[in-house]
Amino acid sequence: MAEVTLKQITKKYENQAVIENLNLSVPDGSFTVLVGPSGCGKSTTLRMIAGLESITEGELQIGNEKVNHTPPGKRDVAMVFQNYALYPTMSVFDNIGFGLRNRGLSRVETKKQVEEIAEVVGLTDYLQRKPSHLSGGQRQRVALARAMVKKPKVFLMDEPLSNLDAKLRNQMRVELTSLHKQMGTTFIYVTHDQVEAMTMGDQIVVMNQGEIQQVASPIDLYSMPANLFVAQFIGSPPMNVVSMYNQPSCVIGFRPEKAAIDVFESLDTVAGKGLMLNGVLVSREILGSELLYYVETKDERVVVKGSTESIIEVGMNVRVSVDAKHLYFFDRATGTRIIGEKRKAMANSVIGGIA
Amino acid sequence: MQNEAVAKPEIEMLESAHAQAWPQQKPAWGRWETIRPYAYVTPALLFFALFFFYPIGYVMYLSFHDWSLLNLEAKEWVGFANFTELFQEQDFYQVVINTGLFTVLTVALGIGLAFLLALWLNRKAKIYGIIQGTIFSPHIISLVSVSMLWMWMMDPQYGLLNAVLEALGLPAYTWLSDTKSALLSLVLVSVWKVVGYNTIVFIAGLQSIPRDIYEAAELDRSSRIKTLYKITVPMLSPTIFFLLVINTISSFQVFDTIAIMTQGGPVSSTNMLVYYIYEQGMDFFNGGIASAASVILLGLVGLLTLVHFAFMSRRVHYR
Question: Counting beta carbons within 10 angstroms of the beta carbon of residue B181, is it exposed (0 to 12), middle (13 to 18) or buried (19 or more)?
Fold first, then answer.
């Protein structure tokens, strides 16, 4: 067990920086998820921690020890790869035991440990098989077992579930989180899927273009996004963003599930305490328990989540209203969320008016 | 396995449906149905028969006769006499041993060296591409030109090789002029010719190994040597097998270099099967012996290929 600290880490490929001055602390025993769109540097960061990618500048510590130049095998980390990276020519047994043998464990001890771990992940009957004779889920388990058997200080996972079908992915998600609880080891997990990040992580690191946007717990990330990027990246469907006429320097955001939608019958201004938007319902998606309305206002298109109890027909004039406390304000230039007194002032200028 | 089990009932279903659609009330049609597949493959079979089975069969037929290219009509059935004569000939054993030795050395060196070169050249920088191209170039040059070139290089007095040895203060080497070194010199030429091709095939094989497997091995604390023989070599086994088979067959049939550089000499020390066959048939007008030796060559190459398949295919990993 160990904490992982990245201090002023910079990674350059041929003088082009993909990550610059990245600072991150992964607490001991946490399940930290690095999430972001493809090309945001999350995988590169993970690979630098593993030692598969060199660090151009900065300092990487695992358990208070600087490991910038320690070879991957000596960092006491284990990694699960996206494509599992099993050794195709070796049996499941040898795949799991290879690392142990390389650490100088005896044949007998290796056998004992491999069999133990195979029992845990349910591979006992498959130990003599080659990976090519296993299903995707079983290969995933071999990859996990190979990492677990080394009892590493830090567990690294690079999109390990992306090759599984949806059902198996949900199942593995649960298994991985319970595995984390059992082992109590530090997990660092990379994904581009915000649902995966939200459901599994206790600390989520949102990254974009090589920079950390926000580090927070899932619920804080959802309710208190640091900026527009995080606000729109986390949550499905993403947060709506609309302009404010009386405050051109900022934009307003609101979540589809926090807005109400009504058929717009009279021109009476309803005395409300929040944002009112008039528009036309252009399409809707029924998801079962709920449904999504796509509303076109004068300038923007917004999404509102509604219940299936009363369904509004497409083509109707509708009014979308959002309570003031569910409004987020962002600086238009920087994207930073506006908080405190300044937010209060903004909210007041919106209330009652039709933006 | 599973797929077959699933597929089978379907085929059976199709067959029974077929039987219903074509009840056996029209016997003429039924016969055509059985003949039809054979009719379709007949043209190809004829082609094979004419250009493959017939020549091979004819050589076998000729190997039981005493005949000469000068007068093909006057051939005489002699039974196994040609074979008995061959097996009593000391020279023929020498020829078979030479061929075997040449093949083993050429294949071992050609593949071993190519493997090392491939490990070295499997990199991105431009210079490695240039080297790859350079070592591949002998493969596209005619063997006759290659032989002429090396004959000059191996000339004891005016040759480049001895000049280099001399410049380095080393004694001159006999190359093609000594019974002990002539075969090795021919091996050198063959290896030089084949190594570039083998290297390119190996590089292609190396590049098809996913990089993350090596990364996993690194995290598993595998040393470089261990990664090489536990991961790289097993992953390359189909490539090694392929090269082994084609290199063995081509080495067994070496001819051009001998014909140009040594004519089998000195004292039969470089005489090998194909050249021996040529010599018997064309120089000594001994058609029967030449045919019998051809049959033996065919048998040997066939046997070797079978051995390769039997021993190697079990150990070869195909994805």
Answer: middle
